[in-house]
Amino acid sequence: MSFSTSARRDTGATATDLSRWNDSPVGSVGSHHLAGQRRRSMSFSESIQSSARTGQNPLDMSAQEMRGPNGFRRSFIQHKSLKLHGRRANFLTRNFNEFLSLYGHFAGEDLSEEEEGQEQDQDDEDEESALLHVIRHEYTRQQQNRGDDSASVAIEDDEYGPETMPHHKVKKKTSTTKAVLLLLKSFVGTGVLFLPRAFHNGGWLFSTVCLFFCAIVSFYCFMLLIDTKTKVGVDGYGELGARLFGPKLKFTVLSSIVLSQIGFAAAYTVFTATNLQAFFSHVFRLEYSLVFWIMVQLVFYLPLSLTRNIAKLSATALLADVFILLGLVYVYYYSSYYIFQHHGIASDTMLMFNKSDWTLFIGTAIFTYEGIGLLIPIHESMEHPNQFKPALLYVILLVTVIFVSCGLVCYAAFGDKVETVILLNFPSDSIFTNAVQLIYALAILLSTPLQLFPAIKILENKLFNKNASGKHNPRVKWHKNYFRSVVVLVTVLIAWLGANDLDKFVSLIGSFACIPLIYIYPPLFHFKVHEHDRALQAVDLAILLFGGAVMAYTSYQTVSLWVG
Q1: How far apart are CA 179 and CA 392, in angstroms?
Q2: In what residue span(s) does the Amino acid transporter transmembrane domain sit (predicted)?
Q3: Is 152:138 a contact under the CB 8 Å cutoff?
């Protein structure tokens, strides 16, 4: 056979193979550009699958494959993908990255940022994403054949890494146990430390009964929201309002979310300033006003608020939660120690019902149950959504026990002398007290930008074009930066206005901003969906009227007490 004949036959075979590959289904991609990307990625995938069929490690490309077009580049991408995704992320990293991803889907709204995750060129992203699935699948299969089950776990868990969280939506379905942990993180925060003073405002018996009542009604309203969202078939809280009542109610719902998140951030700012003031006064004898310590926090808030990729806040969120846990343990320890080793229960100054300030407790109690914005994304992420109800019930009962016990123990220890920030009741000359004041202040300082993130993104989506990206347009990026800075400045200004009466400030946030999100909108939406069920509508209407009345009365009373 002559050389020309051989060349023609080889060329013909190659042309036939290319024709078959070209005719293979690409999926209804919708554009020649995307189809071209798909063909390119398929050529890479075929190389890996070919190696796998011959029993070769998919990362060990043959000499022929390496000599082919872009062979070295394909080998580099394959090794890079395995390096990023082929090892198991540790437990804390996985869980905190997943928890942060929920804030990108806060209240079911799409708060993703177009700039996020676009550090590389588009071609690099296309190649890596196309290779990723095949590489991991073949590598895991070979590792399992060798008896290494950890590889499959690593492949499952890598979806929670920041590199694979575009738009912050949880890819892998979450187990019920992990959902419980996420719910606990959602509900247990700084609000629990406001409860000792709140128990004084309401009286220990009234406060205990009220907290359990709020827990029951809140749980029912949480389930109303989830059930209504599922039945209507929408993703977001605001979108649910738009579907049932039009765009005006969507605006109202999103406004309540923005107000509540800014209110949380402002209250946290005052809390942090109070602890920093006490710490530097006792340890370094530096006497500065509360306003000074509020303004100092701008140094941290401004740069952190400009973060586009929320996964970059994972380290600060993890550190903040560790500090909060340590602080809560110390609060329980010292309050109990104070009771048993010193003065006993301060029964002579404890009130069962405080008829003058009881309305302040209601707002604080609602403020404490601040996790409603994360219920929808947690429910959507669950592998078994039917187990969400018992999981939420368990979490609500657990956090209510924590809230009641913390409030009772601290109030029993210090009586009517309990401070708005309970840490101020602890001995100022104790190194442990000073350390807890500092780490708790740092914890809230680091977590406040996370509270502001949903508010900033909702406002940005309203004010800026959804497709306006600062990735390739510095002008758009700086306009957004200026806007975010303004939101932070407004938050700090609100904190300054409420600094001298933190307990009343927290109560007002709970009464005016949080009550609608829990006790008004969910029964209103449920009422609309179940138009033919009079019994359910009667219950919805009762909760709706109750929520409206409590919101109006407690807000009015709180403002009156504040001004008076």
Answers
A1: 9
A2: 173-559
A3: no
Length of the chain in terms of residues written: 564
- The span from the CA of 272 to the CA of 440, in Å, is 8
Q: What is the DSSP letter of 89?
A: P
Instruction: Give the C-alpha separation, 383 to 402, whole Å.
Output: 28
Rg of the chain taking only CA atoms, in angstroms = 28
Name the nearest CA neighbour of 97 among 374, 307, 317, 384.
Answer: 317
DSSP category for residue 482 = H
pTM: 0.75
What tokens appear for 543 in the block?
A: 């909760």
What is the spatial distance between Cα 546 and Cα 123, in angstroms, rounded to a whole number? 57
The CB density around residue 311, as the number of other CB atoms within 10 Å, is 22
List, as one string, the DSSP characters of 228-294.
HHHHHT-S-HHHHHHHHH-HHHHHHHHHHHHHHHHHHHHHHHHHHHHHHHHHHHHHS-----HHHHH
pLDDT tens for the 564 residues of the chain, in order: 554 555 445 555 555 554 554 554 444 444 444 444 444 444 444 444 554 444 455 455 666 666 666 666 666 666 665 555 544 455 445 665 666 677 777 887 877 665 544 444 444 444 444 444 444 454 455 555 555 444 444 434 444 343 444 444 445 678 898 889 889 888 988 789 899 999 999 999 999 999 999 999 999 999 999 999 999 999 899 999 999 999 999 999 999 999 999 999 999 999 999 999 999 999 999 999 999 999 999 999 999 888 877 767 667 777 888 888 899 999 999 999 999 987 789 989 999 999 999 999 999 999 998 788 889 999 998 999 999 999 999 999 999 999 999 999 999 999 999 999 999 999 999 999 999 999 989 888 988 988 899 999 999 989 987 667 777 788 888 999 999 999 999 999 999 999 989 999 999 999 999 999 999 999 999 999 998 899 999 999 999 999 999 999 999 999 999 887
Beta-ladder partners of 174: 382
Q: Which segments of the chain belong to CATH 1.20.1730.10?
A: 173-563
- How many CB atoms within 10 Å of residue 361? 28
- Residue showing tokens 């050389």: 3
Instruction: Count CA atoms closer than 13 A to 298's CA, side-chain side.
Output: 17
CA distances from 512 to 108, 450, 507, 516, 551 (A): 22, 21, 9, 7, 6
Q: Which residues pair with 382 in a beta bridge?
A: 174
- Distance between alpha carbon 161 and the CA centroid of its chain, in Å? 15
Tell me the CA distances in angstroms from 254 to 239, 480, 494, 513, 561, one per residue in order.
9, 19, 19, 11, 29
Are 512 and 259 in contact, with CB atoms under 8 Å apart?
yes
- Only one residue has tokens 């179940």, namely 530
Q: Phi and psi of 492, rounded to 5°?
A: -65, -35
Tokens 């138009």, residue located: 531
What is the Cα 237 distance to its own chain's centre? Answer: 15
CA distance 254 to 11: 63
What angle is formed at CA 240 by the lines to CA 236 and CA 245, rounded to 5 degrees?
Answer: 150
